[in-house]
Amino acid sequence: MRRIIGAVAVVAVLATACSDADAVRPSEKPGAETSAAPAPRDGQRPTTAPRVEQSPTPHRTFSDWDVGAKPLPVRADGFGRVLPTPRELRVRRLPTIDRLPPPPDERFRSSVRRIGPGIRERMGPTWQPGCPVGLRDLRYVRVSFWGFDDRPHTGEVIVHRRAAHDIVDVFATVYRARFPIEAMRIATSVDLETRPTGDGNGSGGFVCRPIRKGSSWSAHSYGLAIDINPFQNPYQRGDLVLPERASAYLHRDRVRPGMIRPGGVVVRAFADIGWSWGGRWETPRDYMHFSATNR
User: Fold this and answer.
1) How do the domains of the chain map onto residue ranges?
2) Would the pTM of this model clear 0.85, i.e. be above it?
């Protein structure tokens, strides 16, 4: 169970975050794809202080931290031990590793597909019989996103069919603002088997699991929640921080690239489709988390 919980919070932290009414658009079919106009070159800029910190040489020099190389000791509750944020990750701007072909140009691209055999195999135990949503009610979505390397990439996420096209609209807005995302991919069997390292940063959506330290189903189990840049936007409840090495990012007044801010483009884009932000909760605080259920 801890492996499943860890995989969602980060899709792969990398191991450390429904009505049947059909709102699928008539154009949806396997392979359906849409595109939008080229993104403007001006990125998201805060209109007021605080000032966003940048690396000494933006878009050129990155930390050489080896993500996933240092497993953490495991706590009694199954999570990794919370450790201080390494110096190399206090202003995290790691380049994206392409696991899907990147866009050929700077145009936003998206596709919405049903869950086919290949995707189902990759999902492994992140979906099992008895989950509160069936595979036929889930959709596999691909969208373009900007990385911290100032390049466009292709991400993937699984969400409920009713939310799929709204989620495309969200990421189109985020893309136009050039809000940086490090990685965006679905949780797989490999992620669930990985020991917690506390330094993952994969944005993601569906995985069938209960809420952390609870028994009711998480919104992720319905495909109605998405986590964005978990490392820059960690989860905190008591002494638990996820990802476990991301404590430096609990200091929200020190704004760094990839952080989700009240009133910022990411919060506004999700609010436009009626989703709420876990960064507004009192406890736990879940800065990465957006959901249609406020859970």
Assistant:
1) 2-41+98-224
2) no
